[in-house]
Amino acid sequence: MITSLTTTDGHNNIVSGAGFETTPFGRKADEDIKKLRVLKELVAEKKMNEYDSGGRSGDKGPGAENDGNTAPLPEKVSVGGSPMYRIEKKLGKGGFGQVYVGRRIGATGPGALEVALKFEHRSSKGCNYGPPYEWQVYNALGGSHGVPRVHYKGRQGDYYVMVMDILGPSLWDVWNNNSHTMSIEMVACIAIEAISILEKMHSRGYVHGDVKPENFLLGLPGTPDEKKLFLVDLGLATKWRDSSSGQHVEYDQRPDVFRGTVRYASVHAHLGRTGSRRDDLESLAYTLIFLLRGRLPWQGYQGENKGFLVCKKKMATSPETLCCFCPAPFRQFVEYVVNLKFDEEPNYAKYISLFDGIVGPNPHIRPINTDGAQKLIYQVGQKRGRLTMEDEEDEQPKKKVRMGMPATQWISVYNARRPMKQRYHYNVADVRLAQHIEKGSEDGLFISSVASCSNLWALIMDAGTGFTAQVYELSPYFLHKVGMDYGAVGEELLHQCNCRS
């Protein structure tokens, strides 16, 4: 299959929404929900299109949902110089077309030269200005890691046709045919490989825009690719960076536009915000939780307010609640991705490392092929292809014990007119004062300003003080300022004697 399947499980999309500045999962939750309710009422009333799970957003619209009103499909297809294919069984239908098996005429043997044929009628909204927009995306991404190849494309009669690799069942099919369950190891493998596929897609400047179980397909059973994972249906893919400048696209928000699938869409997508890499990862997080738990907390809403209610529920559901029956790595992944900023670079290798411990050390016996993820980890030079959270967070030598809040890294500032060097330290605990002051003295820097609050210090060390030495001591008492050359602010006193030559 090459596109989302029509199902009857209640996966629906909407063409409505509301927008306001917020962050997901409980930050200013009450206030934000009130704003959401008010803005929802202000947005022009638009009837929701209750498409099936493969439905699409209003600004692109479904392309082949009215099969009865379009010309019948041809019996045979040949486009773009391709061989002649006979159309056989239907694989699926989505908002941007319908997909059939195509068998090359004259080929013999079981499964000989089967392809997937994706049809989109010329009258569909996605074809208002010529060939489907999806063709451009496949031109840029087709054949890259996790994306099926397009062999031919062209127009025949009233239809635009793509001839593509034929693939196997979707993750939705696998989950549905396995009594609505998946093992933890299987879902962890899916997480690992899906993150690597998104990383490759993002590295080429695109975000998918509709990540969900129906759009992840396995390879064709009985072939070498049967354990490989593929991401399909690129009709909602958009660029997150400008092709010429390489700069991130600008932030925008259109509350009346929704793109994606309600169940798996990010909160930002519900609010009409410009899509970026964070949205694909948030949708992936919901996909993984769904496959593991079998249900998401916001399923079951119906009616015209469905999108609003789902968005409200997503904002009110904490990662702890969402992942209460899941292993810790799933909660950690959700926490990371829902807190990403609009233009922030995701740490794909770190996300993969969260799940690496669940699936075991031998990639060859995993239920999903994770070669792509292993290559990604090797790229960051981690030993044995493993990156653990402990390794990353404990970059300081083991012998160092950090007490209190860590100081920020010092910054050196140079004045262009006269040689002057300054160093700034913030949030320095009492026990760490000495090392900063001693280091500064070695570099010819002495304290010129000092402040304290709640046993944390801020220091400015300056090369332009004219001091040649500095003596200091900590006092548990606040002392009044006297004639000596020292500074004191806060609950404790850093008493310093400065000597000039």
From TrEMBL:
PROSITE patterns linked: PROTEIN_KINASE_ATP, PROTEIN_KINASE_DOM, PROTEIN_KINASE_ST
Enzyme class, spelled out: transferase
Keyword Aminoacyl-tRNA synthetase recorded: no
Domain Protein kinase per the UniProt entry, residue ranges: 85-365
Source domain of life: Eukaryota
Composition-biased stretches (Polar residues): 1-15
SUPFAM superfamilies: Protein kinase-like (PK-like) (SSF56112)
GO molecular function: ATP binding; protein serine/threonine kinase activity
Documented EC number(s): 2.7.11.1
Annotated stretches, region: Disordered: 1-22, 49-80
Cited SMART domains: S_TKc
Alphabetized UniProt keyword annotations: ATP-binding, Kinase, Nucleotide-binding, Transferase
The UniProt record lists the keyword Magnesium: no
Record: residues binding ATP: K118
Family membership: Belongs to the protein kinase superfamily. CK1 Ser/Thr protein kinase family. Casein kinase I subfamily.
Name of protein: non-specific serine/threonine protein kinase
Organism: Gossypium raimondii (Peruvian cotton)
